[in-house]
What does this fold into?
Amino acid sequence: MDLETKNELNQIKSLLTLLLPKVFTIRDLMIRTGKSRQAIIQYLERNYEPEVDYYKKNGKIYVKIEVAAEIIQRSL
It folds into this structure.
């Protein structure tokens, strides 16, 4: 890969970092997947590790971006 391509990829990565949140809420996933809150929570509990891949804070469940991307991709 040449230097110009690497620079372009770094620019794209920087833009995506600005546009995407570092964590997603269950509500964000509901909107993007069309799944219910209960379905998403059950899927998280069965397939991911609490406090590593998702966590609860002030009554809301937050999901890491990598996990959210996998869930969204699976729903397509």
